[in-house]
Structures are given as C-alpha cells and as structure tokens.
Amino acid sequence: MEDRGPPARGEEPPPPAADRAPPPQERGPGRGPWPGGEAEPPEDFLPPPECPVFEPSWAEFRDPLGYIAKIRPIAEKSGICKIRPPADWQPPFAVEVDNFRFTPRIQRLNELEAQTRVKLNYLDQIAKFWEIQGSSLKIPNVERRILDLYSLSKVVLEEGGYEAICRDRRWARVAQRLAYPSGKNIGSLLRSHYERIIYPYEMYQSGANLVQCDARPFDSEEKDKEYKPHSIPLRQSVQPSKFNSYGRRAKRLQQEPEPTEEDIEKNPELKKLQIYGAGPKMLGLGLVAKDKTLRKKDKEGPECPPTVVVKEEPPGVDHRLEPASPHPFLEVKEELRHSPEPCTKMTMRLRRSHGNTQFIDSYVCRICARGDEDDKLLLCDGCDDNYHIFCLLPPLPEIPKGVWRCPKCVMAECKRPPEAFGFEQATREYTLQSFGEMADAFKADYFNMPVHMVPTELVEKEFWRLVNSIEEDVTVEYGADIHSKEFGSGFPISDSKRRLGPEEEEYAASGWNLNVMPVLQQSVLCHINADISGMKVPWLYVGMVFSAFCWHIEDHWSYSINYLHWGEPKTWYGVPSFAAEHLEDVMKKLTPELFESQPDLLHQLVTLMNPNTLMAHGVPVVRTNQCAGEFVITFPRAYHSGFNQGYNFAEAVNFCTADWLPAGRQCIEHYRRLRRYCVFSHEELICKMAACPEKLDLNLAAAVHKEMFILVQEERKLRKALLDKGVTEAEREAFELLPDDERQCDKCKTTCFLSALACYDCPARLVCLYHIHDLCKCPSSRQYLRYRYTLDELPAMLHKLKVRAESFDTWANKVRIALEVEDGRKRTLEELRALESEARERKFPDNELLHRLKSCLAEAERCVSDALGLISGLETGVPAMPLSLEELRTFLERLSSVPCVMHQLADVQAVLERALAFQEEAQEALRGLPASAAQLQGLVAQGARLGVAVPETHQLERQVQQAAWLEEVKRALRSPRERVPLALVRGLAQAGATVAPSPAVEKARAELQELLTIAQRWEEKAHLCLEARQKHPPATLEAIIKEAENVPVHLPNILALKEALAKARAWIADVEEIQNGDHYPCLDDLEGLVAVGRDLPVRLEELRQLEVQVGTAHSWREKASKTFLKKSSCYTLLEVLCPCADAGAASPKRTKWRREPELGLYKSDTESLGLSAQDLRDPGSVIVAFKEGEQKEKEGILRLRRANALKPSPPAPGPPSCVCGQPPGPGMLRCELCCDWFHAPCVAWPRLGAQKPSPAWWEWDAKFLCPLCQRSRRPRLETILALLVALQKLPVRLPEGEALQCLTERAITWQDRARQLLASSELAGPLERLAALRQRLHGDAGALRETSCNEQPKLSLENGDAMPPEKMGPFTSDLEALGAVLARLQGPVLELPEGPRRVLEELLLEGDLLEVTLDEGQSLWRLLQAARAPPVDTFRHLLELEQAERRGARARGRDAERRRKRRAERGELPPLPKEELEPKRSRESESPDVAPPGAGADHSQNGVGL
By C-alpha distance, which of 535, 734, 671 is closest to 742? Predict the structure, then answer.
C-alpha cells in the first residue's frame, strides 16, 4: 500500500502559489522553469530493473489468492509484482464523483529524501545559530553552484577536523572530495567560508567555547526521555517553527551586495565590529546582520539599530586595531533602514546601572567570578548570567548592542532536538474535478507541454533530481489515506445504499474487488471482526505529478494490493523481504541524525532514499509503472515506495494468507523490540482460528496448527518463568472484550491476549510475560497472572487443529493406494467416486493427488462410455464412428490400464477378435482378383457390420466402386439415340480420378476426356456468340449450330444460341410485315421492335433503319412539344392538341392543374380523344373523334360560362375557384373565356406598362385568359404549318401528328369564317370609322409631342379622344401616366347592331378555344372593345398589380445587389458579367419564355398569355 504516515511536524502550509508552480527563484540559481538550462547538469537517475509482470488467464484469474500463491515463488524474490487482468475485466468506477470531497496532504519534495532532509536540517541549525546572533544565513556560491555546507562540514570532520587540515594544508583535498576542479585555489576559498560560517557553529556544538565554571545545570533543557513513536502531534495542532521557514531557505540562496573598504571607512559604527587575529570570528562574519531593535530596560518602546553587512577578506593577512589600517580584515557597510516591527532578533545591549546596591552586587562574571570592571560586564538576555567581554572565547572588542545571549544559551538552542517530521494537511478542500484541474495545470506548466505527452522517464528523472536538491523547493499535494468507508470505494459494493445492475453485481462479488479480497475464505483477516481501516477496509489515493509515498512496509508485514482505477501511471520501487534489514541498515548508516530523533522513522512513511543510493550499497531494488486497470502486489516485509506520474485515482488494501502467519509472528517480535503498537493481537487471531478449525481452509488449518504449536510451547515457558518468580495468583480475563489501550504492555506496547502480569497495588499498569520484571517494584505476592486460557485448554485446541490438518493425510493415503494399486486390488468406480466426494465435502485443498483422482475418474468414465457406445452400436446395427484396428488395440490397452474394475473389457476383446478374422478373409479375396462382384459386395457388407475400420475394407470398396463406374461409363457412351448431358460427362470424368486404376479404367477415362474437350470447345464458342459485343449475322450462327449438332452431348449454350436465332428470324418477319402494310407504322410498334432487336445476340441489318426512324419521330415530337407546351406544364402534347372534351367540368380541370406531373396521375394520351391504343392507329378514327371533341368542348365552355356568370363580382367568400384551391380573396381577376375568378399571384395577367399602349384605348390588350382555358403557348399558324411539313416527311405515324393536322384544319376553317365576317357589309362601315379615329388620335399625339412641354393644351376626350401618355404631365413612370388617363376615358366609340354583335361574340368564343394565335382574333376583340364602354376598373386593377410587382422587383434587386457586393468584397464571388448587370425588366422582355414573378404562366403575343 501507499503511505499512511502521520500528518505531524508543526508546519504552517505555504501560500497556494507555492503549491502550484514554484517561481524561478526557488528553483536554484541559473535554473528557470523546465526545460531551462542548468549551470551544472545533475547526474542522471538510472532506473532499477523491472519487477515481474503477470498476465493471468480467465481460469487463473477466477481464484485471486490461489493465483497469488502460484506466482509467489517468483514474485517474492522481487518484493513487488504487477498483475494485468484479462482485457475484458473492467470494473465500473463506483465513486460518487459529485459528493467526493477530500483534503490532501502537502509534500515538499526535497524534505522527503533522507539525505536531503539531513542537509536541510543542518542548514536550519546553522541558520538558527546565526539568527540567534542577529544575522541571516546567506549560502555562498562556489564555482557557480551553491556551496553544500553539510558536505563541507562532514568532509572536514572525516579528514581529521579544522585544526588538522589547516596544519597539514589539506584544503585542496577537501575541495577535491567535494568534486571541485583543481588548480583554482578553491581550497583557500572553502577554508574562508568554513571559518566564517561553519566553524563558529561547530565550536558551539562541541562546547569548546564554554569555559569551565561553576555554572548551574541547564534548567531549561530536559534530558531525552524514552522516545514515543506514536506521540507525534497532528501538524495542524502545532504552531509553525520560527526557525524552519521555507521562504527563508530560498532567500539563503540569493546574492546580496557586500560592503567595500570605502563603506567601512565612512561608517564608524562598523569599525567597532572589526575583529582581528587568526581563528574563528563571531557576530556573523561574512553574514548579513538582520534589523534588530535595541531593547533597553528603562525604555518600553523599541529602538532599532541600523542593519549591518560584514564581509571577510582572504585569510593570512595580519591586521591591527588602527582605523587607518591599509588592509582591514573586515569591510563594513551601513544601510540606514529600520524595522517597523518589534526587535525580537538578537542584538547586544550593555547592562544599565541601577540605584539598588544589592542588585548591582549580584552581577558577577560566570567565568572569573568577579564583578569588577562593570562597564565590561554583559548580561545574557536568555538566562541573566553575566560575562566579561574579555572573558569570552573569543573575546569581544567592545560591548555589543541589542539582544545578546551567552554561549551556554546559544548551545542549548542549537542542540535542541528537531521536531518529528510528518506531512501537514492542506487548507483547501477539493473535489475530484478541481483537484484534477489543479494537477493537470501544474504538470503542464512545469514541463511546458501537454500532460499526456510528458514521457514517464522524464518525470522519473526530474522527480529524483528535485528530491535530491537542496536548492529547489517544489511543493505538491497528495490525497492519501482517504477512507473508503466514509467516501465510498471505487469498486461496486453490495449494500443497501443503492441497487446494483447485473454488471455491477458481478464486479461487487469478484475476489479482485478490494472490498472482498481481505475477507475471502482463504484470507486470515476474515477472522478479525473489526473493520481495520487500511487493512480490511480499502483506502483511496488521489495523486498528482511528483506526489510520493515513502519507503515503508505494511502493518504486521502483511500483503498489500493496489489497483489504479484511472489516470496517469504510478511508479513503484520495491525491495524483497530478505533485504529489508539491509535497507534499514543503509539508511541508518547514511542518515544517523534522523534516526537519533526518530528511531522508528521508517514506520512513519515520511522518508525516501534514492534507489540508486540503495543499489550502490548492495540493496536489490526493482521498479514498475502501474497503469490504469493494473494491480500491484507487495509481499510480506517488502519495502516499497514510489510516486505518481500525474493525476490518478488508486485504491489499496491489505490481505493475509496462510503463508503469512510465520511472518506475522516475527513482525510481533520485531514490534516488541521497537516498542511499537500493534494494529491487532496476533495471539488473538491464532486462537480465534484455532477455536473453529472446521471453518478453516485445509492449508490454513495446517499453517495455524504450526503457529499454535509454537504459541503453546512459548506460553508454557513464559508461565513457568512467572511461577519461578513467585507469582502464584491467577485470574481469567476475556482480553478480547477489553479495548486495546487497556491491554497493552507498558514496556513493549504489545497487545496482550493469552496472558499478562498485573499488580493489585498498581491496577493501571500491565505487562506481557516477556517483561515480568518491568511491571513495578511491588513484591511478587501482590502480582497476579491474567490469562485467557489455561494450559490444559490450549492443547485441546491444538488437537482439534491437528485432526483437521491430518484428515487430509488419511484421505491422501487411501487415494494413493487406490491409484497405484499397491495392494494388488483394483477399486470399483463407485469407490473412487466416494473418495472424490469426501474431498469435496471436507473442503480439502486443491492438490496434485486430487487432480490425479479426478483425472482417473474422468478417464474411467470416458472408457466406459466409449465401450458402451461401441458395443451398443454393434447390437443395434447403427455403429458410431468406427475405430481402426490400431485404435481398437489402444482402447483395449486403456481399459486394462485404468486403476479400477472395467466390466466391458471382455466385450471389447471379442470385437477385436472378430475384426482380425475378417481381415484374414478379406486379404485372401484380394489376392484372388478378379473375384466375382457378388463376393466382393458381400465382404464389404460384412465389414460395415463389424464397427471396426479394417484396412482391407477400403480396398474392397474401391474394387466395387471401379466396377460400378465402368458400367455407368459404358451406358453413357454407348447410347446411340439420346444425347448425354454435359454435366454427366463432366461428373464421370471427375469420378474416374478416384476410381482404382486399371487398363479398362484408363481407356474409359481417355474417351471421356476427349468427348468432354470437344463439348467444352463448342460450348465456349457458343458462349462467345451469346455474350460478345460484336454480334454475328444469322448465317454465321446457323453454321455454328449445324456443326455442333454432330457432338453427342447435350450443350446448353448451343441450345440458347439456337433459340436466339429463331427469335431473330421471327423479328425479321415482323419488320417485313410492318414495312409492307397499307399505312405507315405507328411509333409504338417501331419502338417495341427496336427494344426486342437490341436484346437479341444477332446482328440485324433492319435494326439500324428502325432506330433512325424512331429517333426522327422523337425529334419531331420534342420540337412540337417545345412549340406548344409551356414550361412545367401539367398537360401532354396530345392533350393540348386535342379539344378539351371535359371543359364544362371545372373540378376535374382544377384537379388536373394541381397534380404533380412526376406522380403520373394525369390521363394518358390514349384517353385524350376517348380512343383505345388500337383505334389511335386508324387515321379515320382519330379525325372522327377530334370532330366530336370540338363540339363537346364548345358545349362545355358555354355551360361553364353560364354557371360562372352567376357568381358575384367581386367574388364573395365561398368555395375555391382559383387553381391554388384557396378561397376567394381581394384583387382577383376574371377569365374572359370561362368567366371564373383567379388570384392575381397565381396566374399570368396582361401588363399594360410593357405594351406601350397606343392612344386608342380599345387597342390596349387587357384580355385575360386563365391557365385552364389557355393550355399552351398558342403558336402562330405559320409555325404550325412548318411542323406539318416536317411531319409529312416522317415514315412513321404519331397520334400527335394526326391531332395537329385536325387542329390546323380547325384553325384554318375558323380563320376563313372570321375573314368573311370582317369583310361583310355590316362591319365594313364600323371598321372604316374605327381606323379613321385611330389615325386621327395618332396624328394628334404626334402634334402634341412638338408643342412646348410648358404648354398643356386641354384635349377633349369625347368620342374616344385620348391624351397620349407621354403628354400627361411630369409623372414618375409610364404606369402613373396611364393611371392618370383612366379617369378621362370615354366610350363606346362605335355602335354595332345586336345581330352582328352576337355573331362576333360567338365567333370570338370559338377562336379563344383554339390553341393557335390568329390575327383575326385580335381584330374581332378590338372591334367588340370599341363597341363597349372603357373597362376602367380592369385597367386600374391591372396597373395596380403591375406597380406592386415593380416595387417588389426593385426591392429584391437592391437586396440581391447588396448581397452580391458583400460576398464579392469577402472574395466569395467573382464580379457579375455585364449582361447580368442589365435591368431585370429588359432581360425578361428578351426571353418570352420567362414569366414575371408571381405570374405562374407565360404571356402570349396578344397580351393574354405567353
């Protein structure tokens, strides 16, 4: 497990910034944040060898303690090992992350390492020494690195001391041992530093400066009492040590300016501090004196003297007291700064005179015992002793100012033992998320790279560099020893708190669950009732980079197991148990100072030592990186330590197996010598298991028996010694009911259970029987024995254990005799099963003998099963898989070798004998070949009934198979009438390869192969003809088929080719029949023939001609469609060309308009004229149907007009009439043909502004036809005639062509009628008057354009006069001009009689039904318009619609232009081409196919619609 060290040592936590990332100045001179450069690179850390790694299979993984016992012989040699579970074993993380809060420990890395801590403690002592004397320690730099004062002191001591080195002039050797380069006079520099800093401290430590006097003992210094290992106070409850400031440690390493000679000369105060002569100097030579307050007895307020800096010159120069000495020994500089705080640091003050004579007489020098020279007498501020300044060693030149302490007080303070070291708790509480954010930020900042990219080797080297450094104070936090019972385990737990899922239930019951492993049946700890936190109940660990757990062994030398749930790896180091004492000796040898103050330091889990150092002293060390999802196991008394590579979450617990019991007993003896407290009583554990031996695992029972035997023998000896001492009184005591602190030995702190010695007169004390002389001084008669069991009860418990342990031996003896048949008698199968049941019932351990017994039983049962299967198969005639003769002999030997009685042995022997007899008969028959087929067949049948595979049976079967194959080939090849299937020939050829060879077989195979080769060649040729891209003419195919008929094999490809040829001939006949008919062929017939001809694998000359004809017809149809059909029209070409027979049914028309073309829901072409597909092939039928459709169309539109005329104007809300299917609304338009109402945005309407209307208002094209009445573009008659000319050239008949001819005839007929009417005498006069009026209006408009624009002549609008729009005033647009004119329009301008008017209206109605544009229709419309009143409302409505449309178009154009400019500025679009920058109206006018926005359809040339 990881560290569970006490959070001791009174240390105030540093500010949070120090916990995160230490500033550069705290990381040593010349060293910035990682990876900055170093003045001297540290020695690289050499990783120890890797520990064993085990990967159990699923079968091994199911028994945790069994697997650990299996790997123990290998892993125990390393002390630790790593186990990787199977890949599928992934327990869910069960901690409630939101509620998990903890307070971590603070770790300062360089205090963890033992040798570094010794150095730091030494520096603290020196700093305290100089601080008492009023100076701050500043460690000097030598050769660009900090001087190691501890190493310098130690080397000087090892070389014989300061005087010996000076006498022999061996300072150069000291520099060499400190790894400084030679030849730079570094030895002299080291000597000066030693004299200034270390030698005064060493002199005080040794007491050399204390003159022998009758001084009283140090009352304030207590002698070291017995060390109490568990009396370390909690770190939070102890005030911080004022001599252990980590900020001060960092400041020691900074450089400060030193005084010059000029400064000393100018400062008379510093001159007084100059000390001359050889030897050590006092008062901070070469040190910085702190600000001190001058404390006086007759003043209450503090007065602070100036700060003083003193520096030593190179030694060897003699100096005098004269101030003008040319070579002063000291250079002094005064800095006039005063401390605002009270002067608590050391200053020296002169004793003041007092009026009391008795008080004055009490001031006597402690050295010379005289009180004269009062002005030279100093009073110690610590103990009030008096000293002459000239009696001190060395003597002081004058009275120092400020607080002064005598040598005795200084030595007492410096020799005070250091505080016990431990970890303090942080002041901040973390959640897992906040701790992880802090940890990841620290690591990323430290290494200057993402946390997942930092190599583990780099972290490891940097960790040991920081741990070994005295220059850098790096602080981290570690969430260690978090109780899982309080915060929740990382593994699922089966308790009543929450319901687990099926997967969680599996992991909650797993033996590898750390909550389960300590209480497994094979574990010793399951017999301890108490939940020992950390041992039986897991502890949790939340780590960050560099957070460490120090060298330690587990409590009671138990096993430990650690599981890393998630996060970055954890690096471990381990030492095997046999080297545990060696490790302890090395650490005590290298750091004796730590063990003097803390003898059980290694039990406090607060000390590291570099593995390289341990390995250099012969300690075997291994390492490993534990990754997420891996276990690390430590073995009894195996020291281990390590650190975390980054943010992670681990869980650990202890467990003990049977092999641990001897180690546990030795651990108690070790604890007794160290006087360390126990976690539980080992004796109590042994006795509790011995009391219930039937519950113990057998291995555990045997181990407990051995321990119990040793325990009983030792108890007998101890009680006998007590009796010899004279203690005769005894009293039974149930020790397990007492608290542990009430049954601990006062001497060795062991928890007593079997017995203890107490005293009637000293009831508060108790000792174990190993320390009966240390209880008290009372007589033995007052002492009495407190015991748990009598000496008679202990052997009885031992006997029960022995019976339990030896029951296995009795059983094992029986099994051994049965398996090895030692008595010559084979046991029955039932007897062996009884032995196996006994082992299971008594829960004997898994052992080799039990495995042998189970294997023997399994083998016997398999033999019985196989024998019964063989015999029963022979009896029923359905044998199982037959055995060979060798296998039968081997099986018989297996039956004989099984160490139990096998009743089936005789039956198997009889089967073998029958098989051997058949083998002899078969061999004789094979020697006499050729034998009769019947004889061979009989032998084969006899061999099949044997149930044994005799080799000769196979040979007989091959002979029979050969004869059958030859017979089948003979039948196939000699059949004169029937063709042989190709598959049969191929199958016979393949079967011939497996037939036993013979001359007849070889001949038959040759014939088969020849026939198969010929057949396959013709098949391949036919396949090429069927599949090749290059088709062959029918004559070629016919020749191939004729030649293939000579092959006596049924060829599938030849038959397919023959069938294709027949189809090609039929196709040619169909083509000839169509071509020779009375009429041109229909397009549908030709398309069908082309499709069939393309699929035939035959080259057909007529096919190309047909394809050309079909293509020409399709081209004509497409041209006609473009001429008539609007874009996205819902009508087909045939529907447009034919009359609308259902014109009177408004609903079907609107429904058809709203149908989506892609849905295919509209009527087919064959239904347009009410004809079937066959009738469409007859031109006469088409003409008759067209004529009938004309009449129906006219009748239907008249009905529709009458119905729609009844609708109100404007339409009231009601059922929908528009093509959109929505209810009527404002601003609707009325169709001139059907008289129905439509929404303006849904249809195309005439635009007056685009027409540039003439002055004659009746020529304004305001006629509106709805898209239901105007179904096509209505091309001019000339265009249609061109299409008819092209149609006459087609050698193909199309239904659309017939319909177009009928439409053309209908249009020409109507045109003739219209011309006759317009030329009649009734209309000749009105037409002439109308033409004259039009000419006059146009002339007036030209004259008006010549007048001045300032003159606005008033024109009469009577009799149809109209003012030209361009002279209507300064209007903003043509639409506004037209709107202004509307109010002055008058009419009608003509008068028509009722008769001609009716004829005109009827003829115009028929013309509007035509899907053709004729000039006569326009003339009729204008004539009727002139005879009516001007439709001002219609004109105004159309102008309003057009104005709204233009405004919307302009707004959309501006928005589109802005968007285009913004995108062009961003570089997303290239600039528009010139034609795209033209006004939208001009581009629309150029393309008659494009409707204006919202139009819904195109306008025609007459303004009604395109």
Answer: 734
